[in-house]
Amino acid sequence: MSLSDLMLIERLLDEVEKPARYLGGEMNAIIKEKQPGDLRFAFCFPDTYEIAMSHLGMKILYDILNAQPHIICERVCMPWVDMIEGLRREQVSLFSLETRTSLHAFDIVGFTLQYEMSFTNILEMLDLGGIKQRNEDRGESDPIVVAGGPNAANPEPLSMFIDAFMMGDGESLIVELSQTVRTMRQTGARREEILYALSKIEGVYVPRFYEAAYNKDGTLACFSPNRQGAPESVRKRIELDLENAPYPTGFLVPYTQIIHDRIVLEIMRGCTRGCRFCQAGMLYRPVRERSLDRLYGLAEKLVQNTGYEEISLSSLSSGDYPCLEELIQGLMERFREKRVSVSLPSMRLDSLVKQSLEETSQVKKSGLTLAPEAGTQRLRDVINKGVTEEDLMRAVTDAFESGWSAVKLYFMIGLPTETQEDLEGIADLAKKVVDCYYRVPKQQRAPGLRVTVSVSTFVPKPFTPFQWFGQDDLETIRGKQAFLRDRLRIKGVQFNWHDAELSFLEACVARGDRRMGEVILAAWRSGCRLDSWREHFKFANWLKAFEECGLDPAFYANRLREYSEILPWSFVDIGVTGKYLQLEDERARAGIVTPDCRGDCQGCGLRRFEGVCTA
Amino acid sequence: MKMWVVFSVGQRLRHIGHLDLMRAMQRALRRSGLDVCYSQGFSPHINLSLASPLPVGMAGDREVMEVPMQSLIPPETFKQRLNDALPIALRVISCHHRPDDEQAAMAQVCAAQYVFEFMDDADRLLAGVPEYLKRVSIPAIRKSKKGDVAFDIRPLIFNLFTKEGKLYATLALSQTGTAKPLTVLETLADFVGIPTPRAIATRTGLLTSCFGPLEAI
Q: ipTM of the assembly?
């Protein structure tokens, strides 16, 4: 970047809101001087700095890439609207946090795909970074644009823009991909050949080597490689040995406050519960754990290197970690002297034990969050959320008796087979929780009961048993929200609900095909970006974008799909088989629960992978 | 026992806020393992204080922080260990033992020195300094909770001069009166009759009532 551009950035920083977002230079940021032959990787997070810096995957991969010889990884985040406007006005390229290098000067530009409604941000970042948005328009000197993360499991909606997708765990894959690009660039290989070589790496999908054809009704007629050698099916990568997989010991410590401003210790990856609505539960299989010793060792180094005052445990289901109590105890003993507290997120309520509640509250009393997801036992059985009302009541009573007074309850509406009774059930549960509180003697309970009932709209996702299901239409959702709003006028209860429109579009994009790219591009052209920020969400523009592209959003969101239909993501082998997902869907309809597969293999398909679930 | 720490905030960090800087220092002290005092309660923290909040947008050459200590540590050791734990843009310059019963650093600050480097043409502005200073009173506006308050900024300007295209200022900074560097710049530009040129300002030092550096009392 030229000196005058750097000066312009300094000026912009004087103008914008929260300039600390754009500074870099944090504790543990890695700045490597570029040597000839080095590959520069821009790790792009398509949302603002506060969200980006809270993301664990970025911290892991940033460290792994920078630990490699000849690879330099720098971070780039989505700027806020004032900075976007400033960069355009002053004609300054979007830049990296570490060295303020223009995005287009990197060899690889990699996006992490965490949320469908951040896809317009990818187009905005490419445009601000001086990179052509359509992959077919990029030339030999342009960066190779890659993407990974959970949303890469259905890569098709972004297949117009991304050169190569990475499926599954990224630890080894991102290094293989980067080193392949580096060595091939050194030998002067052409872009097409580099991408072809990438398509040979297990877990990589290069959309240009595939073609889709459609039936008259808009469904996929066929999807297949158009270049010999590109694999028919792309299989996700699995880091089998999580214990020894690299984990950062020097988290970046931002100056400005971020969402998760603490040490995050990933104790486990994957979940065997098999909740049928949950995409992460299917995508991140199999379950792998880190040992107590490894976790203590990591925590020791992280506390030393960050100075953070809090450790939180992270996994899809921390309550299922076999030695959870021992771990919490151990961490608290080790760090009491250093005044570091331990917190527990994402607890499943059936694994909540009073003791661990007390353990956490000894250090810090944050709110208790529970996710029954549905209002009745019948519906909880349908979604395979093996939690009973008894579990819930016991958990909240324990919490209230131990001096907690704030409880958050998460529910979904629009789940398959939902009836009026299930909606009533949500309000009933909330009432029962309130009653639990008042049953605890006044001198024992903490004052100020706060029950927050958060209701989101169910979004069917690829690779879940409900991937064929049609989402409730907008009118139905709004009706259900209004019903609940009315029923939840209870003293001490606060009702939150999500934008139905946003969930509707999320459903469109999540299960979109190749043609969805044009819609995203049209939406971006009409000014859509930062869609997940309420003040910037432009629903009407999205609807117009669908219209312009001749596509019907209801086709993607609300239509019930046939089991026989070729789904846009059918060619991806995520581990769990389509056959198993169908079986689970059928069981759901019949109200049959599937037990946790730790006890007994349910045949989800992961065992087809070498070395998986062998114990 | 308490320690006064003189440190710099680099250009790179001129946009972090006061609370951000406090937090960065807290975490650096935690990383350093130095024997500092923690508060009691659920969220124990180090009761450090900064002599004066550094305005957002400004780098600082000689900021002062007061840290309550559990035990006596040689200043040189303290400096080295804290520097090892700080990001590159924050540097400890010197450390000084201070008696517990001494007035807080915050209460002893009376003035601060600043330097402005201009991003826009500032020739006319700089040429106008001598005339500007000749005025007996210079009306200015201060924003307060009750709305705009008019006040005379002239007695709060202790020194103002130019050198090699830069503007140097020594301005009052205390509970009884403060001249904000930006207000001085604005009233000067207004006096000369030009729009306020954009500048990068650095606070170069904090002074006591006898105009000595704070740390040299």
A: 0.90
